[in-house]
């Protein structure tokens, strides 16, 4: 069973030692993808590394799917998420109580 842990996203930001708020006015660019990451209490937009952009292009990451994030890297306008080599299978969804 997958459990959303409150504060998991905040811990990633603390490890990044950066400002969790997006800098700049435009969140969308002509290249790459932006993902909305969230835990049970926080949410933010991140971009993927150039190597990980293929995960979206090839439908390996789908809407609502859980993924493992190794770490966040400070960047502008949004942090860069390093996706783990072990993504959740697309058919695994959140089960249980968020509390």
From TrEMBL:
InterPro entries: DUF936_dom_pln, DUF936_pln. It comes from the Eukaryota. Residues 23-89 form the DUF936 domain. Coiled coil: none annotated. This is DUF936 domain-containing protein. It comes from Carex littledalei.
